[in-house]
Amino acid sequence: MLRVAVPNKGSLSEAASGMLRECGYRQRSDHRELVLQDPDNGTEFFFLRPRDIAVYVGAGQLDVGITGRDLLLDSGAPAEELLALGFGGSTFRYAARPGTAAQVEDFAGRRVATSYPGLVAKHLADRGVSAEVVRLDGAVETAVQLGVADVIADVVSTGTTLRQAGLEVVGEPILHSEAVLVRRTGAEPSPAVEQLRRRLQGVMIARQYVLMDYDIRAELVDQAVQLTPGLESPTVSPLHDRGWVAVRAMVPRRDTNRVMDELWERGARGILVTDISACRL
Ligand SMILES: Nc1ncnc2c1ncn2[C@@H]1O[C@H](COP(=O)(O)OP(=O)(O)OP(=O)(O)O)[C@@H](O)[C@H]1O
Ligand SMILES: O=P(O)(O)OC[C@H]1O[C@H](OP(=O)(O)OP(=O)(O)O)[C@H](O)[C@@H]1O
Ligand SMILES: [Mg+2]
């Protein structure tokens, strides 16, 4: 039985369960359920705090889990990224009152509040900056106003929380984070884990790409397929009308309308776009 950890609440929870559902797994309907069997897929799901997931996986109690890259690194657990999942994106950054610090080196001798002490202590140590790390559970933006810290290090998504607290970012992001599938460092690859990884990758590709079909005069096809090279090579099929061919290729979803406009200008007609609901490549 494959044992998988899934965030039980917080920013990553719904998107993680939604993605697993798209992969054909059972997911809970009641938020209080903490363990769920999916016998059809030989899988058992454990709904845990996202911060704890790398710890369970690193200790070998669970085979894989979904958590944030920032939480994985902060945990210091012997777990590693198997696949980035394309949701739950954020940056992790330092912030301070305007004019009080311009770069990380300015934090020397100051207090840095964070709920990611492992990540921050390592980042400061790697740069040879000696600062005091103050561990808080959340809402760290308020720590400067209340005099508990001079600087904070936290997840920044829209930046609204920072602005409202009168803080501004300092230096480059410490980290770009997103949801990731993790396993114990160096764990032997197993067929069950590989199958889950392939399913997740299939859903990601199905989300990122559309299928584009169009007809074009045979002598123009070489130019047209430069716009739609597909992942490997587009399918080109003859049409009954011998002067024309039909082309089918995967196109990045965000490029859909630009590619359609450019294809039209190069003489393509009958351009159709279809969602991909699942794939294995
Ligand atoms: N806007 C956001 N706010 C907070 N976390 C976010 C955001 N966007 C993505 N994330 C990611 O979600 C994860 C944090 O999850 P979560 O919010 O559940 O943790 P938490 O703040 O410790 O828990 P909670 O706020 O529920 O007590 C991190 O990997 C973080 O990068
Ligand atoms: O840049 P923004 O879009 O404003 O988002 C970032 C904020 O969201 C998170 O807080 P959360 O709501 O999870 O509360 P917490 O601090 O108690 O974890 C994070 O810790 C920041 O405070
Ligand atoms: Mg939070």
From TrEMBL:
Residues 206-277 form the Histidine biosynthesis HisG C-terminal domain. GO terms for cellular component: cytoplasm. Signal peptide: none annotated. PROSITE patterns: ATP_P_PHORIBOSYLTR. Its cofactor is Mg(2+). The keyword Cytoplasm applies. Feedback inhibited by histidine. One of its GO terms (biological process) is L-histidine biosynthetic process. InterPro entries: ATP-PRT_HisG_long, ATP_PRibTrfase_cat, ATP_PRibTrfase_CS, ATP_PRibTrfase_HisG, HisG_C, N-reg_PII-like_a/b, N-reg_PII/ATP_PRibTrfase_C. Pathway: Amino-acid biosynthesis; L-histidine biosynthesis; L-histidine from 5-phospho-alpha-D-ribose 1-diphosphate: step 1/9. It catalyses: 1-(5-phospho-beta-D-ribosyl)-ATP + diphosphate = 5-phospho-alpha-D-ribose 1-diphosphate + ATP. It is found in: Cytoplasm. NCBIfam families: hisG, HisG_C-term. This is ATP phosphoribosyltransferase. It comes from Vallicoccus soli.
